[in-house]
């Protein structure tokens, strides 16, 4: 039985569950399915690929002359597989209270597509799930209400475009490699590689290609944002780690990616948007690590991805819980909530500490690995940029988010604590954050997951490292306090901050409007002319071809007879003289 | 045990003679039968037997190759030989099969369209026409071709004139057809005469051999070629020589129109193929230049002009008639490109068009039978009044346009591929353009039928009144054939390739 099922990509089970959910009217059954499907998928991964076994390649399908490998599990993809299943369970717990068929089904299909996507063995399969993640997740954005509709459309357009680039790149890449679509190291030697890099770059938010993230994530529904933040970008990071490890250009892209969102995050008022910028910044660390490409860096990236999904989810969950109770996530309208939501506040602080890489909390180990790898490779400028970004992370995610939500000036709101299922999901996430950074036997578990090299030989809890990190964090806290005291810190204001998306949201729409106005103008002007031309052409055609027209004039039998003779002459002339 | 073993040996041995003798004989008997039912039944039996025979002969040809049947035991150079080869076997099956379809349909149709006194002679003339068509396809003797051509033509003039009880214009159409058909036959027989002068034989295989030895022959052969092309061109309605066709198709009784459109022009096309590629040879310089400059040009001009004319027609049957002229253009284009692939495509289109156009004419006839409809503007609400008939019309119409999964698509696609393969890209463009024109003329009827309500008479909507089963069954047999060829055209496509390889060899 297991043998038979082991040909099937585990992600498909979740997708099937999602399809069933779409037609299941009973809420409690649906919820059971949403919880059980990722667990079952994780179990299937374990059955197919027990710890430490060889690379599994299965599920070969011949599709239109191309051999597709629908299932490939190895040391790298298995980490993502388990991670996405874990995130699926946490998200399911978090959304347990929500009675919405559309969210349940699209969340499951989205999760399943991500799981199936990371286990794709060839670029065509990858493309299919790449597009499926985009199409299934857009419903989560649209659940965010009217305001989210346009953002969802933009999100969908960008992601479908990314998929098209991926497919085009895949075809060009395979063409250059004699029709082999296998998804392994790609590199930038042929133009197809650049297209593939662009496609992945859009999905993981390279600078100037990132705007969909900050545009769409904050506008989705509460659970929607949590689910969205878990999969899409990490799926793209997986694709990068598989296809472009050690590609130099990624070091600089990643370094820039860590820095620029810091500035936007500081001035932003919508806390979910702040978190979206911080997500982008975290992805920068991973991209940079992939660019460095040493064993240490890649292991750091894998660990960082694993933890990042958990602690970023935790932060989105805590802000979501606040939003669930208060109805807003604007920094200007929140504050002093630690009185009414103490548990949420504590859990949020754990998340903040994790993302800021405070010793004993999640990212401390893995971020240090990436930074250390940069130093090892003598990449000092990227190292300094990432260092600055680390301080920035502390500043906006570590301090700003909890500060303006739970402390700062009292907004006077007195609400209930978050629902039990949200607290449970957050507690589990927070527990993972602490356990996997625990110096005595905790982070070693994380090391066991890391795919590259024999055994990881990096010791994060050395005195100098801990002290250095604490100094950095305290400097950030000090700067924050100083600025706040002096009144220099950007006040929380209601405003929509546009960055690169201004180009298409304002200029692009303007151009489109202008063109349509001009088109209408020109078409009115030329209407008479066009009608006249059409009528004239129609009349001419009618005069020739209609039953009363020239060609149909009833001729006496003599004329066709004459025509026949003329034909004969024509044929004889051609037969005689044309050579 | 193959399918061939079912048929007795004497049928395979004497089948060719059987095919032309049986309908001839029965035609004479049928003419004096007192009762139309008996006449119908005897005709039906004859057509059925001929179909089975033709099918058996075609199977035999696939397995055992060319068979020559010397008539009366006289061997070919002196006597008349009947030949079954890859080229004419499928055409024989097509003619006999279409005769069966038409005869079934004729049972109700003649009651509405032909005067009671003339019904038994109608069946006699029909059998005579069929005997002529089968004879001119099966025979291997050039003069014999002419004789049978005249047999079928004279029978056809009678049949067309029988439409007079429905529409008096049929008489003029028949007269017109008579004049032009006779001119065509005369040209043809003059051509045969010249060819006999050049080669000294009337056996087509013998002519081919001698012409080959003479490397094309003298001017006499060229003149003969010219006369034959023009004579056959008239019979198959090559574009400027098509004047007889719309009238004859529009005013003759429906079974006659169906039978004519799907067999008579097709038999003439078969003769064209036979003479151009078998008796003559496209390697002769004058043959090649006539193919390239005359047949292709006229084919393409015909495709465009006739399609345009079809768009503007008021009478639905005339529309289909003009469409037939356009479709002949496709076949001429395939013949004119003169590669194995293009000839195969033209041959395939010949068979497919017979099936498609047959289905369309049968559907139109059923509409006339129930509601007296002849004009396109009367199609309003037809989908509600006669859903099954309209369904057959729609699918056949799609097939004519060349929608994928129908027969029309298969042959048009093959023709386009063949044209592209020979480097004739502009011809691909013309094929696409005329297919779009076909969307217009078929589409206007479909739009009216599906998106308009049935007309009201004295305030009441016209009720549904489906055609009788004897009309629906043959109609849907053709529709079904069209879909089967479109889905998996294996057998027919193979047959067309076999014919083309027989004519040109597989190498080109």
Give the secondary structure arrangement, pairings included:
The complex is a heterodimer of chains A (579) and B (508).
Chain A: H1 2-5, H2 10-22, H3 27-48, E1 56-63, E2 66-73, H4 75-94, H5 101-118, H6 123-142, H7 147-176, H8 191-204, H9 211-216, H10 222-243, H11 248-267, H12 271-292, H13 295-326, H14 342-355, H15 363-376, H16 380-406, H17 420-435, H18 443-449, H19 463-486, H20 502-525, H21 527-545, H22 558-577
Antiparallel strand pairs in A: 1-2
Chain B: H1 9-31, H2 36-64, E1 67-70, E2 81-84, H3 89-113, H4 119-138, H5 142-161, H6 169-199, H7 204-213, H8 219-235, H9 244-251, H10 254-279, H11 285-311, H12 316-337, H13 340-371, H14 382-385, H15 387-401, H16 407-421, H17 425-451, E3 456-457, E4 460-461, H18 469-488, H19 490-504
Written description of the protein model:
- The complex is a heterodimer of chains A (579) and B (508).
- Chain A folds into two domains: 1-244, no CATH class; 245-494, no CATH class.
- In chain A, helix 3 (27-48) packs parallel to helix 5, helix 11 packs parallel to helix 16 (380-406) and helix 13 packs antiparallel against helix 14 (342-355).
- Chain A has helices at 2-5, 10-22, 27-48, 75-94, 101-118, 123-142, 147-176, 191-204, 211-216, 222-243, 248-267, 271-292, 295-326, 342-355, 363-376, 380-406, 420-435, 443-449, 463-486, 502-525, 527-545, 558-577, and strands at 56-63, 66-73.
- Chain A is mainly alpha-helical.
- In chain A, strands 1-2 form a two-stranded antiparallel ribbon.
- In chain A, a hairpin with a 2-residue loop joins strand 1 and strand 2 (66-73).
- Chain B is an all-alpha fold.
- Chain B has a domain at 300-508.
- Chain B is built from 19 helices and four strands.
- Chain B has helices at residues 9-31, 36-64, 89-113, 119-138, 142-161, 169-199, 204-213, 219-235, 244-251, 254-279, 285-311, 316-337, 340-371, 382-385, 387-401, 407-421, 425-451, 469-488, 490-504, and strands at 67-70, 81-84, 456-457, 460-461.
- In chain B, the strands form two sheets. A two-stranded antiparallel sheet of chain B has the order 1-2. In chain B, strands 3-4 form a two-stranded antiparallel sheet.
- In chain B, helix 3 packs antiparallel against helix 18, helix 15 runs parallel beside helix 18 and helix 16 (407-421) runs antiparallel to helix 17 (425-451).
- Classes of the chains: A mainly alpha (579), B mainly alpha (508).
- The A-B interface holds A 541-542, 544-547, 549, 551-552, 555, 557, 559-561, 563-564, 567-568, 570-572, 574-576, 578-579 and B 175-176, 179-180, 183-184, 187, 219, 222-223, 225-227, 229-230, 233-234, 240-241, 243-244, 285-286, 289-290, 293-294, 305, 308-309, 311-315, 318.
């Amino acid at each position: 039985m297991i043998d038979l099922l082991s040909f099937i990509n585990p992600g498909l089970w979740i997708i099937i569950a999602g399809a069933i959910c779409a037609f299941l009217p009973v809420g409690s059954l649906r919820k059971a399915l949403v919880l059980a499907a990722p667990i079952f998928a994780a179990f299937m991964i374990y059955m197919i690929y027990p710890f430490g076994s060889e690379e599994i390649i299965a599920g070969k399908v011949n599709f239109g002359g191309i051999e597709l490998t629908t299932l490939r599990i190895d040391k790298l993809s298995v980490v993502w597989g388990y991670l996405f299943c874990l995130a699926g369970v946490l998200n399911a717990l978090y959304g347990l209270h929500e009675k919405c068929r559309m969210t349940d089904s699209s969340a499951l299909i989205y999760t399943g597509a991500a799981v199936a996507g990371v286990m794709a063995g060839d670029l065509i399969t990858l493309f299919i799930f790449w597009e499926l993640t985009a199409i299934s997740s857009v419903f989560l954005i649209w659940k965010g209400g009217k305001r989210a509709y346009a953002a969802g459309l933009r999100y969908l357009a960008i992601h479908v475009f990314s998929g098209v680039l991926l497919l085009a790149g895949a075809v060009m890449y395979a063409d250059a490699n004699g029709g082999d679509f296998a998804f392994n190291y790609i590199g930038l030697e042929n133009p197809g590689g650049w297209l593939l890099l662009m496609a992945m770059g859009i999905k993981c938010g390279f600078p100037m290609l990132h705007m969909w993230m900050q545009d769409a994530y904050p506008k989705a529904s509460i659970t929607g944002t949590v689910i969205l933040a878990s999969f899409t970008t990490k799926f793209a990071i997986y694709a990068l780690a598989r296809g472009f490890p050690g590609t130099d250009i990624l070091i600089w892209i990643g370094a820039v990616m860590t820095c620029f969102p810091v500035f936007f995050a500081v001035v932003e008022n919508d806390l979910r948007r702040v978190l979206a910028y911080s997500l982008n910044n975290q992805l920068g660390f991973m991209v940079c690590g992939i660019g460095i490409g040493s064993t240490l860096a890649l292991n750091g990236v894998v660990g960082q991805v694993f933890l990042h999904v958990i602690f970023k989810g935790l932060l989105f969950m805590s802000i979501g819980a606040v939003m669930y109770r208060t109805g807003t996530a604007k920094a200007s309208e929140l504050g002093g909530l630690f009185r009414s939501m103490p548990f949420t506040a504590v859990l949020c602080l754990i998340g903040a500490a994790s993302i800021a890489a405070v010793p004993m909390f999640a990212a401390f180990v893995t971020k240090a690995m990436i930074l250390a790898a940069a130093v090892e490779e003598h990449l000092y400028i990227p190292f300094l940029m990432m260092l600055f970004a680390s301080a920035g992370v502390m500043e906006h995610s570590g301090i700003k988010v909890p500060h303006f939500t739970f402390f700062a000036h009292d907004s006077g709101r007195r609400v209930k604590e978050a629902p039990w299922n949200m607290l449970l999901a957050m507690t589990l996430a927070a527990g993972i954050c602490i356990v996997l950074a625990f110096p005595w036997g905790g982070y070693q578990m994380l090391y066991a997951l890391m795919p590259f090299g024999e055994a990881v030989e990096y010791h994060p809890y050395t005195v100098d490292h801990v002290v250095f990190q604490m100094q950095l964090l305290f400097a950030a806290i000090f700067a924050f306090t100083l600025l706040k005291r002096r009144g220099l810190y950007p006040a929380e204001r209601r405003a929509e901050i546009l960055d690169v998306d201004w180009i298409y949201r304002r200029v692009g729409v303007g151009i489109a409007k202008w063109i349509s106005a001009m088109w209408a103008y020109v078409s009115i002007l030329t209407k008479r002319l066009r009608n006249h031309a059409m009528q004239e052409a129609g009349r001419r055609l009618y005069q020739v071809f209609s039953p009363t027209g020239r060609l149909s004039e009833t001729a006496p039998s003599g004329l066709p007879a004459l025509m026949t003779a003329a034909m004969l002459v024509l044929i004889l002339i051609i037969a005689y003289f044309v050579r | 045990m193959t399918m061939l073993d079912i048929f007795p040996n004497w049928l395979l041995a004497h089948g060719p003679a059987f095919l032309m003798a049986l309908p001839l004989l029965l035609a004479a008997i049928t003419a004096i039968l007192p009762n139309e039912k008996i006449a119908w039944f005897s005709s039906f039996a004859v057509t059925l037997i001929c179909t089975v025979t033709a099918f058996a002969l075609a199977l035999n040809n696939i397995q055992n190759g060319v068979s020559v049947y010397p008539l009366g035991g006289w061997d070919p150079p002196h006597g008349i030989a009947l030949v079954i080869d890859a080229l004419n076997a499928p055409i024989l099956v097509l003619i006999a099969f279409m005769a069966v379809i038409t005869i079934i349909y004729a049972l109700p149709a003649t009651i509405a369209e032909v005067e009671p006194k003339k019904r038994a002679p109608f069946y006699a003339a029909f059998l005579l026409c069929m005997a002529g068509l089968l004879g001119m396809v099966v025979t291997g003797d050039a003069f014999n071709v002419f004789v049978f051509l005249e047999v079928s033509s004279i029978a056809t003039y009678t049949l067309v004139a029988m439409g007079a009880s429905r529409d008096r214009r049929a008489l003029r159409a028949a007269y017109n057809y008579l004049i032009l058909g006779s001119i065509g036959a005369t040209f043809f027989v003059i051509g045969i005469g010249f060819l006999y002068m050049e080669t000294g034989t009337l056996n087509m295989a013998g002519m081919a051999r001698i012409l080959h030895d003479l490397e094309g022959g003298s001017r006499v052969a060229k003149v003969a070629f010219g006369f034959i092309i023009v004579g056959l061109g008239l019979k198959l309605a090559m574009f400027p020589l098509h004047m007889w066709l719309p009238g004859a198709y529009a005013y003759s009784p429906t079974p006659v129109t169906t039978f004519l459109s799907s067999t008579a022009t097709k038999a003439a096309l078969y003769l064209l193929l036979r003479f151009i590629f078998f008796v003559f040879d496209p390697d002769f310089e004058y043959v090649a230049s006539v193919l390239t400059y005359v047949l292709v040009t006229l084919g393409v001009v015909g495709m465009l002009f006739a399609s345009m004319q079809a768009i503007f027609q008021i009478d639905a049957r005339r529309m289909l008639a003009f469409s037939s002229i356009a479709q002949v253009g496709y076949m001429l284009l395939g013949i004119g490109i003169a590669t194995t692939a293009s000839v195969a495509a033209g041959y395939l289109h010949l068979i497919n068009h017979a099936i498609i156009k047959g289905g369309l004419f049968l559907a139109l006839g059923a509409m006339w039978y129930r509601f007296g409809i002849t004009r396109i503007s009367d199609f309003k609400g037809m989908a509600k009044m006669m859903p099954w008939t309209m369904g057959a019309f729609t699918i056949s119409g799609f097939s004519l346009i060349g929608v994928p999964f129908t027969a029309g698509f298969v042959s048009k696609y093959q023709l386009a591929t063949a044209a592209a393969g020979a480097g004739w890209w502009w011809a691909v463009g013309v094929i696409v353009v005329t297919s779009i024109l076909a969307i217009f003329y078929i589409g206007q009827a479909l739009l009216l039928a599906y998106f308009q309500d049935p007309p009201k008479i004295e305030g009441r909507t016209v009720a549904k009144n489906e055609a009788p089963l004897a009309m629906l069954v043959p109609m849907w047999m053709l529709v079904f054939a069209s879909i089967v060829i479109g889905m998996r055209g294996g057998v027919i496509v193979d047959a067309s390739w076999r014919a083309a390889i027989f004519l040109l060899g597989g190498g080109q």
